[in-house]
Amino acid sequence: MTKGPRPPRSKPLLRDESAALQSRQIKKRDRAQPALPFDPMPRRVEPALALLKQKPPLGDQWQWEIKWDGYRLAVHVESSGVRIITRGGYDWADQFPGIESAARALGPATMILDGEGVVLDEQGRSDFNAMQNALGAVGRRSGNLKAGNAIFMAFDLLYLDGRDLRSLEYRERRHLLEETLDDFDGAIRLSEEIDADPATLFDHACRLGLEGIVGKRRDSRYRPGKTGDWVKLKCVQSEPFLIVGYEPSTSAPGGFASLILAAYHGDELRYVGSVGTGFKERAVLDLRATMDKLPWRRKAPPVPYNGKRRAVWVQPTLIAEVEFRQWTPDNKLRHASYKGLRERQDNADVFRL
């Protein structure tokens, strides 16, 4: 038996076969809105870090700029708002209202800016103590954890309008960063590159009281951690150490004579000496009150210690930024001076021996 023809499975395109074939009307794109992303914006980017060097590397493949002394931040400008992410992964947009407002003005583009949040002194130098007064012990005691006068010195661009730029060479990212911030006036500024011999630049930076200089390989991709793609030269050594105790003051009952410090050696803490200079009177009182409020204090030192100081030992929680000239042969700080208290959220890398 012969089967009949199978009926068509699809309907005719047009009911009226004589009518002209037409496509749907396409809506025009709203140019005020950002383009649809090609790459998803990362929620957080682990920062590239500069490796400390005693001498600048040779060759013309390096670009140089001033080293800023503040808080490392990543500014995320998103369609839903602005996030300002610290190294510890915390959103500090509320702590930096000026930077947050400037980032909103950069829209509607979406981007991630890498840079340093700083407070400048009258000479235009970054002043970590001024930043610490707003966000450290003084700010915490007053309940005012805001740095309204902080600015953001941008030195890299990691994401722009749907494109993840981390696989591009640094010279390409830098070109896009300069275009993005061209003629922009606000609390977000471009960290300028300086075309000069690095040894001469470093000498001038130290003479002007700056912290140092940073060099970046022009052909490097953006990689987290200390890979050697970025290097730094510091005029004076400055590192974060854990506070493990304090020596009570004989003249000021509410203060202290010095802080006892520790660094990591492997997974253990080692005593590296003390710091008793660089403090303002108000900072001493605030810091002593903060240490006395720690969850517990210890009778025994939290580090191997055979010194003769009359010490009060505390939980190794607070992180002090300390400036020093050199190390002694037995790994103790020499000519140490206190710079400020690092916030835990800043996730400062405690120094490792």
- Please give the CATH class of the largest domain: Alpha Beta
Question: Strand count, sense and closure of the main sheet?
Answer: 7 strands, antiparallel
Outline: globular
Helical fraction: 10-25%
The third-level CATH topology of the largest domain is D-amino Acid Aminotransferase, Chain A, domain 1
Structural category: alpha+beta
First-to-last CA distance: 93 Å
Binned strand content: 25-35%
Number of strands: 19
What is the number of helical segments per DSSP (H or I, 4+ residues)? 6
Number of domains: 2
Rg over C-alpha atoms, rounded to the nearest angstrom? 27 Å
Mean pLDDT: 85
What sequence of helices (H) and strands (E) makes up the elements?
EEEEHEHHEEHEHEEEEEHEEEEEE
CATH architectural label of the largest domain: 2-Layer Sandwich
Query: Which blocks of ≥5 consecutive residues have pLDDT under 50?
Result: 137-144
CATH-level-4 superfamily name of the largest domain: DNA ligase/mRNA capping enzyme
Describe it for me?
The strands form 4 sheets. Strands 11, 12, 13, 14, 15, 16 and 19 form a 7-stranded antiparallel beta sheet that branches. Strands 3, 4, 5, 6, 7 and 8 form a 6-stranded mixed beta sheet that branches. A 4-stranded mixed beta sheet has the order 1-10-9-2, covered by helices on one side. The chain has helices at about 95-105, 130-135, 135-140, 170-180, 200-205, 280-290; strands at about 50, 60-65, 70-80, 80-85, 110-120, 150-160, 165, 190, 210-215, 230-235, 235-250, 255-265, 270-275, 295-300, 310-315, 320-325, 325, 335, 335-340. The protein is globular. It has 2 domains: about 50-235, DNA ligase/mRNA capping enzyme (D-amino Acid Aminotransferase, Chain A, domain 1, 2-Layer Sandwich); about 235-345, Nucleic acid-binding proteins (OB fold (Dihydrolipoamide Acetyltransferase, E2P), Beta Barrel), CATH 2.40.50. A hairpin with a 2-residue loop joins β12 and β13 (about 270-275). Mean pLDDT is about 85; it is low at about 135-145. It has about 350 residues and is of the alpha+beta class.
